[in-house]
Amino acid sequence: MPAETVQTTELYEAALADVVSGAAHNHGTGVEETPPSFSPVPGPRANGGVMRRGHDAPRDCGLAITLPFGREPFLADARNAGKDFVRSWEAASGLSAGRLWPKYARMLEHANLACAEARDLGVAVAAGATLDAWTELVASKRIVTLVAHWTERADGDWIEFADGLVPVDTLTSRLPRGYNGVLDLATCQSTRAVASITRVHRRCTVLANHEETEIDARLVMYRQTLRILATEHTIYVNASARVHLAAAPV
């Protein structure tokens, strides 16, 4: 849940700023190490991942944030049995959506900042993204980041888009045939989607989280990754790994 860690995001802002100038890590071309919460998983012939030569730019990227943008959508999701993000937060905290809104609004500020900076750098952004909006992004951009709520149910794993929950396997079916891009799944426990995706799309590279991820901090890391791409000759996977390494506990 985002609210419990909103207060730590300013620390991420300060600590990760050094990464853009290269002060935190060297500028090697390979991903030699990753913290436990970050897994680049290339397919066997991953020309979209760590083995691909060349470089990526922000204009090659798409960003889809499926979370509610605004108070009314947030409160409406609490009344929608087809949604889980707000309702599960209510259940875990014992607070109503109205009481949770001020905390969520602080996280939403980071989402708005990320969207604004991404657009300025040339990233295609879908805020409050539906499944169709995400599908359009992966059809037009080589690198797509998905910021979404993940939930586990008796019938499997589901991801929440603005228009409702979908089974994780739906992501696989929505990817273009022969997809060989990079999917950055900024959701909790998203490593569980890797096998489903790479089994069908063997040339796709998936960046995933083993554990729960803090949405506000994750958005800060995304902004830093874009800044690296805007100023250095590197690829998205390496830039993202550098930022995650800088944020990893020592």
Number of helices: 9
H/E element order: HEEHHHEHEEEEHEHEHH
Cα shape:
globular
Helix content: 40-55%
Low-confidence stretches: 1-16, 18-39, 41-52
How would you state the average pLDDT, rounded?
Answer: 79
Number of strands: 9
Kindly, what is the distance between the CA atoms of the first and last residues, rounded to a whole number of angstroms? 23 Å
- What summary fits the major beta sheet? 6 strands, mixed
The domain tally reads: 1
How big a fraction of the residues is strand? 15-25%
Strand order of the largest sheet: 1-9-8-4-2-3
Helix and strand content put the structural class at: alpha/beta
Cα Rg: 17 Å
Q: Which assembly state applies to the chains in this document? A: single chain
Please sum up the structure shown.
The protein has 250 residues and is of the alpha/beta class. The chain contains nine helices and nine strands. Helix 2 crosses helix 4 and helix 4 runs parallel beside helix 8.
Descriptive account of the structure:
It is built from nine helices and nine strands. Helix content is 42%, strand content 17%. With 250 residues, the protein is α/β, with parallel strands linked by helices. The protein has one domain (3-16, 38-247).
List the helices and strands and how they pair.
Elements: H1 9-21, E1 39-42, E2 61-65, H2 71-78, H3 85-93, H4 97-120, E3 124-127, H5 131-140, E4 143-147, E5 149-153, E6 156-161, E7 164-167, H6 169-174, E8 182-186, H7 194-200, E9 205-208, H8 215-231, H9 236-247
Parallel strand pairs: 2-3, 2-4, 4-8, 8-9
Antiparallel strand pairs: 1-9, 5-6, 6-7
